[in-house]
C-alpha cells in the first residue's frame, strides 16, 4: 500500500536559503568552560572504562572473527559503528575486534562483484550482520566505503598489515564495485543507493529515505551524490594505497590517482562558492541539493590535499554558524531547515533531521585539526562531551542522538558505539592529533 506516497521530487524546490556565512568566527574556546570540560571528560572516561567490554563479541555463527556491536538495542555488527568504536577503544584492547569486524565484512564481500552480503534483521529493520546465521539474507544494500580505512586503523595500531594481505582481492573488489555501480559517468560523482545506506537514515538530502518507505520508487536509487560518500571513497583509496605500499606491492600510485579524481569531482561539481560548502547533487535530476546538514563538514576530513585552505575556511565558518552549531555540538540538519526537528524517532529511521550525533562531530573535529582549526575542533569536542556527561548524570547511560536544543539523550538507551570516542577525543584534541589520518 502506497498511500504514504510522496513523489521523489528533486529537493531543490524545497530548499531554504541558508543564512549568510558569518564573517568572524564566533567559536573561540570558552575559558570558563574549561573546568566543566575537565569534569565532563573524567566522568565520560570512567563510564567508558566500566562499559566498553559490552561492545566486544567473540566469533559466532557466520561471523568468524571477533567483532564489535554498538550496544543498547543494537546487537549486530555495523560498518561505521565498528570503525569508530574500534578507533575509540584502541587503548583498551579493541584492535582485534576492529580488525575482526572488518574481516567479517571482507568475508562477506563477493570477490567478483564486490557486493557485500549484509543481513537484515526482520525485527528491527536494521542493516546489520547479525551473529545469527538464520538472519542472513542478501540485500540490495551495501557497506559504506569505510572498511579498508577501518582495517588500516587496526593495522597501523598493531603494526600488523600482513593480517589483511589475504583480503587484497576483497578490498580491490569493494572499490571496483563503487566504480562500476555507483559512479555517475557524467559527473564522476559517486552515489548512495539510498539515504539509509549513508547511515544518516532520514537525512533531508533525500526526498525518500529508502526502500523501506512507502514513498520509494526505483528511480530514487543511486541518485544521491553527497560530500560524505565522496570523502569516504577518497580516503578508502588512500587507505588501500597504504596497504599496497606496506605489503610491498605495486598499485599504490594508481590508487592515489583515483583518490585525486574523486576529490576533483567533489570540488568541481559539488562546491558552491556562494554558500561556502559542497552541496549534495541528484545525478538523476541533475539538481543541486543545497540543504545545510552535517555532511558539509566531511570534506574537511578528506585532509589538506583534497580541499584548499580557502574552502576549508568557508566550510568551518558555515558549520560553526548558529543554525548548525548549537550549545551541544553540530546539528545533523540546520535549525533553519523546514524539516528540522529533535523528535524521538528510531523505527524505521533514526533521526538525523536535527539531533546531535557524536560521530559526525568528532569526524568534523578531526577534519578541523587537519586544516589548523584547532580552537574550533576543541569547541565541538567540548560541547559533545558536555552532552555525553549530562546524559550520564541524568540517566546513567547514553543514547544514540542528542536533542540539539537542550542536550538531552533521545533514542536507543544504552548506546555505546561511537559515543565511546569520548574516551580519547579530549586527548586527541589537546595533542592536536587526528588518529584517522590516511
Ligand atoms: C551466538 O549467537 C547466537 C544468536 O544470536 C546467540 O544466541 C548466542 O548467545 C551467541 N553466542 C555467543 C558465544 O556469543
Ligand atoms: C533524484 O531525482 C529523481 C528524479 O526526480 C527522484 O526520483 C529521486 O528520488 C531523487 N533522489 C533523491 C535522493 O532525492
TrEMBL record:
Keyword vocabulary terms for this entry: Signal
Pfam families from the UniProt entry: MGH1-like_GH
Signal sequence, start to end: 1-15
Record has Metal-binding as a keyword: no
Species the sequence originates in: Triparma laevis f. longispina
Domain Mannosylglycerate hydrolase MGH1-like glycoside hydrolase: 74-415
GO terms classed as biological process: trehalose catabolic process
Name the record gives this protein: alpha,alpha-trehalase
Domain of life: Eukaryota
Family according to the record: Belongs to the glycosyl hydrolase 37 family.
InterPro entries named in the record: 6-hairpin_glycosidase_sf, 6hp_glycosidase-like_sf, Glyco_hydro_37, MGH1-like_GH
Keyword Signal attached: yes
One GO MF term attached to the UniProt entry: alpha,alpha-trehalase activity
Enzyme nomenclature, EC number: 3.2.1.28
Amino acid at each position: 500500500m502506497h498511500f504514504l506516497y510522496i513523489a521523489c521530487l528533486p529537493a531543490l524546490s524545497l530548499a531554504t536559503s541558508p543564512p549568510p556565512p558569518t564573517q568572524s568566527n564566533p567559536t573561540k574556546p570558552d575559558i570558563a568552560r574549561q573546568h566543566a570540560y575537565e569534569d565532563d571528560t573524567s566522568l565520560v572516561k570512567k563510564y567508558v572504562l566500566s562499559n566498553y567490554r559490552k561492545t566486544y563479541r567473540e566469533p559466532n555463527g557466520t561471523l568468524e572473527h571477533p567483532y564489535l556491536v554498538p550496544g543498547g538495542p543494537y546487537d549486530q555488527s555495523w560498518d561505521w559503528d565498528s570503525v569508530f568504536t574500534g578507533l575509540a577503544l584502541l587503548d583498551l584492547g579493541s584492535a582485534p575486534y576492529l580488525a575482526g569486524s572488518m574481516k567479517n565484512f571482507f568475508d562477506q564481500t563477493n570477490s567478483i562483484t564486490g557486493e557485500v552480503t549484509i543481513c537484515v534483521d526482520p525485527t528491527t529493520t536494521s542493516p546489520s550482520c547479525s551473529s545469527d546465521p538464520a538472519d542472513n539474507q542478501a540485500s540490495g544494500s551495501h557497506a559504506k566505503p569505510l572498511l579498508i580505512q577501518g582495517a588500516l586503523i587496526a593495522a597501523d595500531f598493531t603494526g600488523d598489515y600482513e593480517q589483511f594481505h589475504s583480503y587484497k582481492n576483497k578490498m580491490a573488489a569493494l572499490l571496483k564495485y563503487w566504480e562500476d555501480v555507483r559512479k555517475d559517468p557524467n559527473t564522476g560523482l559517486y552515489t548512495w543507493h539510498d539515504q539509509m545506506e549513508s547511515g544518516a537514515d532520514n537525512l533531508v538530502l533525500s526526498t525518500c529515505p529508502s526502500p523501506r518507505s512507502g514513498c520509494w520508487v526505483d528511480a530514487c536509487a543511486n541518485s544521491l551524490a553527497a560530500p560524505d560518500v565522496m570523502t569516504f571513497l577518497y580516503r578508502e583509496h588512500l587507505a588501500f594505497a597504504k596497504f599496497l605500499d606496506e605489503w610491498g606491492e605495486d598499485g599504490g600510485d594508481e590508487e592515489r590517482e583515483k583518490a585525486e579524481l574523486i576529490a576533483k569531482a567533489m570540488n568541481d561539481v559539488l562546491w558552491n562558492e556562494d554558500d561556502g560548502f559542497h552541496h549534495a547533487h541528484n545525478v538523476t535530476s541533475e539538481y543541486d541539493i543545497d540543504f545545510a546538514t552535517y555532511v558539509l563538514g566531511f570534506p574537511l576530513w578528506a585532509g589538506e590535499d583534497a580541499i584548499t585552505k580557502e574552502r576549508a575556511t568557508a566550510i568551518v565558518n558555515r558549520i560553526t554558524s548558529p543554525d548548525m552549531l548549537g550549545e551541544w555540538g553540530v546539528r545533523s540538519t540546520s535549525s533553519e531547515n523546514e524539516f528540522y526537528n529533535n523528535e524521538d524517532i528510531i523505527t524505521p529511521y533514526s533521526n538525523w533531521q536535527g539531533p546531535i550525533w557524536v560521530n559526525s562531530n568528532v569526524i568534523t573535529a578531526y577534519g578541523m585539526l587537519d586544516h589548523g582549526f584547532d580552537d574550533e575542533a576543541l569547541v565541538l569536542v567540548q560541547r559533545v562531551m558536555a552532552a555525553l556527561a549530562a546524559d550520564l548524570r541524568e540517566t546513567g547511560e547514553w543514547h544514540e542522538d542528542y536533542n540539539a536544543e537542550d542536550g538531552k539523550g533521545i533514542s536507543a538507551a544504552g548506546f555505546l558505539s561511537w559515543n565511546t570516542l569520548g574516551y580519547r577525543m579530549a586527548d586527541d584534541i589537546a595533542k592536536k592529533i587526528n588518529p584517522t589520518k590516511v
